[in-house]
Amino acid sequence: MTISITVNGAKHEIGSDPDTPLLYVLRDDLELNGAKFGCGLGQCGACTVHIDGKAVFSCITPVGAIGDRSIRTLEGLGSVDAPGIVQKAFQDEQAAQCGYCIAGMIMRAQALLEKIPDPTDEQIREHMQPNLCRCGTHARILHAVRRASDVMAGVIR
Amino acid sequence: MGATNRKLLAGATLFGLATVVGLGIAGWIVYEPEIPRIKPPDRASLSPALIRRGEQLAAVGDCIVCHTADNGPALAGSRALATPFGTLYSNNITPDPDSGIGNWSADAFRRAMKQGVARDGSHLYPALPYEHFSRVTDDDLDAVYAFLMSRDPVKKTAPPNELMPGLGFRPLLAGWKLLFLRTAATASNPSESPEWNRGRYLVDGLAHCGGCHAPRNILGGEEWGKHFAGGVAEGWNAPPLDASNVSSERWNTETLYEYLKTGTARGHSSAAGPMGPVTEGLSRLNDDDVRSIATYIDSTMHAGTVTRPAGRRVAGDAVQSHPATSTLFEGACGGCHEPAAPMASRGRPLLSDTSDVNAPDPRNAIQAVLQGIKDPTSDAPFMPPFTDNLTDEQVADLLAYARSRFTSQSPWPHLANTVRDIRKENAR
User: Fold this and answer.
1) Rounded CA gap, A148 and A108, in Å?
2) Count of the separate structural domains present in chain B
3) Which residues, numbered 44 to 83 in chain B, qualify as contacts with chain A under a Cβ-Cβ cut-off of 8 Å?
4) Which residues of B touch A51 (CB under 8 A)?
5) B331, A56: Cβ pair inside 8 Å?
6) What tens digit of pLDDT does each residue of A24-75 get?
7) How far is residue B23 CA from its own chain's centroid?
8) The pTM is what?
9) Are residues A89 and A40 in the same domain?
10) Which of B33, B90, B358, B424 fits a disulfide with B77 by CB distance 3.0 to 4.6 angstroms?
11) Looking at the domain assignment, is residue A27 inside a domain?
C-alpha cells in the first residue's frame, strides 16, 4: 500500500506502513535529515516539523494520519547557500552548540513568527517551551527568534 | 379640584411613596459602608507562626492560582477568568496600598471574604467564592490576612473587566447574594471523626471544591441541592465527587490522598486541566490536612449508591472492528499507551484505569488529546498536545477505539461533532 504525502511542496509516494512515524519517513525514505530523533515520545521537540503551518512533533505523528495536509521541514525554509530568515538569525546569533535541537527550534520559531510577526519576549518563551536544549543555549535561541522577527519587520538586516 | 383629580393625586403620592420605600429597601440591601484605610501593617508586628498558618490556609484556598497572571508576580492579580458572563480580571492581593490591599484592615479583609464586599464598599463578583469563604472561621481568615500582608507589595492594577452589557453595574451583585449567598457556618458532626470534620470544613470552606465540582444555575449560582454532582471549569468537566462518579468505587482515602498531594495516583488517574494547579497547590499543604480532605471526599464519593447501566463488553473486538484506527493508535498513542510501554511500567495510569476514558461524557478525554496533560508537580514525562497533529475525525476515531478496547463502557455518541465543538471552544 502506498501513501502519498506532500513535503516542502513536492508530492511523494511512500511505501511505508501507515503507523510509521512521519519522522522516520522524512529521514529514511526522503532523506530529509533536518528533523532529528530525540526521545520518540513527543517530549523533546528535536523532531519538530510543520503540518499546515503548525509546529508538531513528527515522531508521534503516524504518516497515515497526514492525508492531504502539507508538511514543511527545515529543508523547506532555505539551503546552506540561501538560508531562510530564521535559519540565518540562528546562525548570526550562534544559537547552536551541539546543534541537535536547532532544526526543531527553528521550525517552532518559524511557526510562531508566521502567526505573530512581532511577539513579546513572554510569547517567545511560552511558544518555544515545548522544545528542549540540553546544551543550554536558550538565551541565544531567544535572541535568534527576536532577531528573525526584527529582520522580517525590516528593523535590522 | 374634582374627585378624579384627587384620586390621581392620591395615586401618584402612593406610587411615589412606594418608589421611595422600594428604593430605600434596595439601597439598604445594596449599601455597604466604606471601611477606613489603614497604614499597611508593619511586617514585624505579624507573628511568624500566624503567617505560617496563613500560608498553609492560602494553599488550601489556592489564592495564588486565580490571583496571579501567567508569568506575572505572585498574588498581584490580573489573571483573566473567562465566565459565561464575560471576562473578569483578578485583583491584586499583595499589600501594595494603591493597587493591592495594603490599606485594608483585617475587618475589611474578613468582610470581603465572607460577604464579597471590597474595602471601599463596592460589591465583588462571585468569581471570588465567598459562597464558600463565608464558612471559614474568623481566626483562619486572620491568619490568611497576616500571610498576605507579609508578602512583598507589588504595584499592578488589573485591566477593566469585559462583561456583558449591564453586568458592570455592581449593585446588582447584592441581589445575587440575596439569592445565593448562605452565611451559615458549618456545624461539626459529632458522629464523624475529627479528621472527617476537618476535611469537610476545608472542602466546603477555603478549598471551595464545589466552585467547580457543583453544577451552576443560569445565574451562575451553585446548585446547592446538587452538591458535588459535577460541573464544568475552563472547558474541562469537573467530575462528580459523589457516588455518581464513574470511578467512585475505585477511589479510596489512600488513592485520593496520593492524587491530591502529587497530581497522580499510581495506576489510577492524573490531574488535568484546571485540576493541575489545584494539586500543585495542595502538594505544598501539610500531609494531615490533605489526608483530611481525602477522608471527607472519600465519604462523599461513597454516600448512597447509583445504579449504572450494564457495560457492554467489547474489549478484544476493538482491533477487528476498528482496523484502520488500530494502526493509527499504534503510531500516535502506542509508544506510551500500549500496556507494555514504558509509561505503564513506571506506574502511570493505563487508559483502562483513567476516569476520562471511562466517563459518560467524552469532554475530558477529548481535551486530554487536544491540549495534552502536564504533570502539575514535576517535570516528569507528559502527554503532548495532539491538536495540530490529528484531524477531528482522527481524534474521534482514536477515542472510540480506546474506549472500546480499554473499557467496557458503551460508545460515546456524536464523537466527531463533539471534538469539532471543543476544538472551536479552545480556539476562542
Assistant:
1) 13
2) 3
3) 70-71
4) 388-389
5) no
6) 999 999 999 999 999 999 999 999 999 999 999 999 999 999 999 999 999 9
7) 36
8) 0.87
9) no
10) B90
11) yes
Residue A157, min C-alpha distance to chain B (Å)? 31
Q: Which of B389, B391, B392 to mutate to test the interface with A (most CBs of A within 10 A)?
A: B389
Examine the domain organization and report whether A98 and A40 are in the same domain.
Answer: no
Helices (H) and strands (E) in chain B, counts: 20, 7
Q: Which of A17, A43, A51 sits opposite B389 (nearest CB)?
A: A51
Q: Which domain holds residue A66?
A: 3-76
A11/A41 same-domain check:
yes
Q: How much is the pLDDT for B304?
A: 74
CATH (domain of A117)? 1.10.150.120
pLDDT(B226) > 90: no
Q: Which residue range forms the structural domain that includes residue B290?
A: 194-301
Q: Give contacts of B 321-350 with A, CB under 8 A.
A: 324, 327-328, 330-332, 334-336
Please report residues of A whose CB lies closer than 8 A to that of B384.
42-43, 57, 60, 130
Q: In what order do the strands lie in the sheet with A54-57?
A: A10-14, A3-7, A70-72, A48-51, A54-57
Pair B296, B365 in one domain: no
Per-residue pLDDT at A11: 97
What pLDDT digit, counting tens, does each position of B346-378 carry? 777 889 888 899 999 999 999 999 999 988 777
Is residue B246 in some structural domain? yes
In a domain, B19, yes or no: no
**Is B384's Cβ below 8 Å from some Cβ in A?**
yes
CB contact at 8 A, B280 and B339 = no
Q: Do B331 and A67 touch (CB under 8 A)?
A: no
- Residues B69-93: pLDDT tens digits? 988 999 999 999 988 899 999 999 9
Q: Give mean pLDDT, residues B276-292.
A: 96
For this complex, say whether ipTM is above 0.85. Answer: yes
pLDDT over 50 at B313, yes or no: no
Distance CA B272, CA B264 (A): 10
Question: Considering the domain boundaries, does residue A98 fall inside one?
Answer: yes
A67: which chain B residues are within 8 Å (Cβ-Cβ)? 391
Within 8 A by CB and 6+ apart from B416, the residues are B392, B393, B396
Same domain for B69 and B176: yes
Res B220: pLDDT: 84
